[in-house]
Amino acid sequence: MKFLDLLAMSVNNLRRRKLRTALTVLGVIIGTASIVVMVSLGIGLKELTVEQYAQYGTLTAINVYSDAYYGGGQEEDPQYLTAEVVKELSRMPHVRYVSPMLNYYVIMKQGVYEANISLYGVSDEFMQDIDLGEGSYPSSKDSELRMLVGNTVYQRFRNSKTNEYFWEMTETPDIDFMNKPMFVIFDTDAYYQSQYNQDSENKVSPPKKYMLKTAGMVAGGENDYNQYSSSIYVNIDLLEAQLKKIFKKKAIPGQPTTKKGKPYNYFIYEQLQVMVDDMENVTEVQKSLTDLGYQASSQMEWLEQSQKQQEMIQVVLGGIGAVSLFVAAIGIANTMMMSIYERTKEIGVIKVLGCPMGNIRTMFLMEAGFIGLMGGVIGIALSYAISYIINHVGGIGTLMMGIDGNISRIPLWLSGMAIVFAVFVGMIAGLFPALRAMRLSPLAAIRND
Known about the structure:
alpha+beta; 13 helices
């Protein structure tokens, strides 16, 4: 018997019993839809977790600290983070670049508004990874120090006349970063001494104010908060040159000194940011850094813990959906068994005519496979419909994770695997009935009414 003849017989047998076939296919539809939707929820939770962590900083960054900066560690030979350490760590495998971070506290003024704020001196590569809203990036090639300003920095300013802070103001501070320069006081100690020490004998002259222009603004609105939104970044080489010019040979505020209180002839950084080439290598690089004696932290260590929990949830959800498909498989087996009892005489005739046993098995497996295929395809369509309802009704993703996004996500590979799995389950469920049909005695089958 040819394959096309077996195919035609299988389809005709299913068409003859439309209601029973439809009910069996319905079971597969429900089972397929259940397992796909459950797995899609697990995938959505996992991806939303990654997106949530990515909002607060890149997932390929490692922050490196040293106890020595804060007065801890080895007193005889402190393990400071310096330019030499930056070069050393830059040569590590899987490291794209290492950016030192020089955090320097200043006072900024524009009109009646002022703020106590930190300038973060970073490398050009670091700034290039920040999403730019308008303007351009500051660069080490600039002739003067320029700023990259976070989109919510203005909220840190207060009105010096009314002494009102942002949250106390009835209107948004009239601060124009892009078109007006900012007056910056670097020597804050001298500034406060000049303000409060009015004794004529010990009177301190007000320090010089410097004008800094804004090169660009970080992307985002007034309610968009991320790792960069509330900070101001400048090129680290130009910041170091500016500080050396202002303080000359005096100790720079915030920089460690020797036991005798003298400044070092190089800059010491509070932290470094190591940028790794891929998320998969972050854990390996972080371990190498801790082995060198540095403190290292990254978003990935928290993300991995969250993902383990999400994977457990995904397994549970997938198991719940699999129960429905298992029930559907029992329905397919039952349908095939009933088909054998109804077609016993037909099977006997086929055997008497000398048809190979394999053809009988193939015919029943094809019928079971067709039921799985129809149920799988329609089940996938139903899954997409349910997924759409979940994602667009009620804002479940926002409620569960606190960020916008689809909580149910069905990738193409899941759709394809679901259909293949439905067909496979159907054929496995039809295997026992097919073997039973092969074992029927031809003579007994022909006598059967």
